[in-house]
Amino acid sequence: MTAPVVTFLSDYGYRDEFVGVCHAVIARRCPAARIIDLTHGVARHDVRAGALTLRAALPYTPAGVHLAIVDPGVGGQRRAIAIATREESRFLLGPDNGLLLGAAAAFGGVGEAFDIGASSEALTPVSPTFHGRDIFSPVAAALADGVKLQELGEPIPADGLVVLPDRGAAQAVGRGDPLAARVLSIDGYGNVALNASTACVGAAALTVETAGAHTDVALGRTFADVAVGELLAYVDSRGTLALAVNRGSAAELLALAVDDVVILRFR
Amino acid sequence: MTAPVVTFLSDYGYRDEFVGVCHAVIARRCPAARIIDLTHGVARHDVRAGALTLRAALPYTPAGVHLAIVDPGVGGQRRAIAIATREESRFLLGPDNGLLLGAAAAFGGVGEAFDIGASSEALTPVSPTFHGRDIFSPVAAALADGVKLQELGEPIPADGLVVLPDRGAAQAVGRGDPLAARVLSIDGYGNVALNASTACVGAAALTVETAGAHTDVALGRTFADVAVGELLAYVDSRGTLALAVNRGSAAELLALAVDDVVILRFR
Amino acid sequence: MTAPVVTFLSDYGYRDEFVGVCHAVIARRCPAARIIDLTHGVARHDVRAGALTLRAALPYTPAGVHLAIVDPGVGGQRRAIAIATREESRFLLGPDNGLLLGAAAAFGGVGEAFDIGASSEALTPVSPTFHGRDIFSPVAAALADGVKLQELGEPIPADGLVVLPDRGAAQAVGRGDPLAARVLSIDGYGNVALNASTACVGAAALTVETAGAHTDVALGRTFADVAVGELLAYVDSRGTLALAVNRGSAAELLALAVDDVVILRFR
Question: C43 to chain B, minimum CA–CA distance in Å?
Answer without folding.
Answer: 8
